[in-house]
Structure prediction request, 264 residues.
Amino acid sequence: MIIVRQSCTQVFYPVNRYEPLSNQAIIPTAPELTNANDDGLHPGFLPIATNTDPRNKERPSLPATLSGIIARFTTGPTDMTDTVDEMNQVMAEADCLVDEQQAQTAIGKLADDITERLKDSNPLLFCVMNGGLILTGQLLPRLRFPVQAEYLHATRYRQETTGGILEWKLRPEADMNDRTILIVDDILDEGTTLCAIADYCQAHGAREVLTAVLVDKKHDRKARPDLKADFTGLEVEDRFLFGYGMDYKGYWRNAPGIYAVKGL
Prediction:
């Protein structure tokens, strides 16, 4: 528990609330900044945080003296090992829907189609982070014409009254006025964010906005009826996918193929 003495301006920050006061850290502070009430455990002190852990709970990955707030900011090797083991297990059990060679063939076909249509149009290409990173990186060297490449990062939050608000994590800065825009992303799932980005580019003066995705997931939940990208590499069944930019819990964007999580 972090406690404040009412008669001075010091905070006592114990590693364990049952240790002697001589082992506790002393940090200057202003008592008026707290809004806690006296809990009766320490006469003359006001608690501003309470140890909510069971007193005798075992923590095999933590030193025995650490508990409460301190414990929550401490990680041991068990946590990292568990994460790596989980991710390796996910990959071991996953179904490979598209192998590396098939993915490379699809990217080559995308490059050919894009080149044929845009080679004389001086396009501005936007990579949608983070999913579009791998596709864009492998697509660009195959585009045998001048292209200006930038990136952007946006998320879409749905609201019933507005149909969704586009929130920019990184807004595009390049001048889009009277330009042909190509938006590159990993997957067309429902397409809500992709459509919102396209609308944004159109509203900022783009002459033409086109989209390219590696994967189109087959289902009837699209943001708009019959929604399709202008350039599509592969159509894949409606499952939880990872690899080639798509992730599982933030991992396996680097998987050398397109995989579906077991049971999902």
In short: The two ends are 43 Å apart (CA to CA). The domain at 95-260 is CATH 3.40.50.2020 (Rossmann fold).
